[in-house]
Amino acid sequence: MPCYAIDGVVPVVDPGAYLHPTAVLIGDVIVGPGCYVGPCAVLRGDFGRIVLKRGSNVQDTCVIHGTPAHDTVVEENGHIGHGAVLHCCIVRRDALVGMNAVVLDEAEIGARSIVAACAFVPAGTRVPPRSLVAGIPAKVRRELSDEEIAGKRAGTEVYQELTGRALASMREVEPLPALTPGRPRLPVTKVDALVAGRKGSGRDA
Asked: Which InterPro entries is this protein grouped with (predicted)?
């Protein structure tokens, strides 16, 4: 995985974390135990510190960057969806930032909150705990239910399991030229499509 020092500052990655070989870490980046950093994610600690705390995940093509005045932090069990951008902000414990969302400078996403996919969270925004925020600009829509918070946590646990699977078995290979009889399926049983999770809930997300 490409890791680069700048001004003598070297990234720190706990041995229990998984970083995909195409992820890029630069400078003052600290990745804690049990974290997952996906393909083509970029964590640029060339201006300010970036911290991923225990059990958090940063999925494919995410970008995290910051400024010298404030650390950019994803707290324990934070969940950063595909393509999201975090810039000099804090994502509190058990919060989720949805796919392609943007969270700007000095914003704070409260514990156990969810930022909807494609939302734009302006600089300085304070999202209360247990909130659903959505829109451009993002606004608090409602409080999350216990069921929704549990669903988010279950999704994060799937990524924590993926960390272990990737550390144990992911490797670069040549593709097969053709489908082989009896091709195995992946041993994953707990992942549902979002629409499946919403059936019968009567809730919008």
From this structure: Hexapep, Transf_Hexapept/Carb_Anhydrase, Trimer_LpxA-like_sf
Going along the chain, which residue ranges are E strands? 3-4, 12-13, 18-19, 24-31, 36-37, 42-52, 57-58, 63-65, 72-74, 79-80, 85-87, 90-91, 96-97, 102-103, 108-109, 114-115, 120-121, 126-127, 131-134, 139-143
Name the helix (H) or strand (E) containing 4.
Answer: strand 3-4
Quick one: tokens of 205? 């997300």
pLDDT tens digits, 95-145: 999 999 999 999 999 999 999 999 999 999 999 999 999 999 999 999 999
Helix (H, G, I), strand (E, B) or coil at 126: strand
pTM to 2 decimals?
A: 0.91
- In order of their start, the domains of the chain are 3-143 (2.160.10.10)
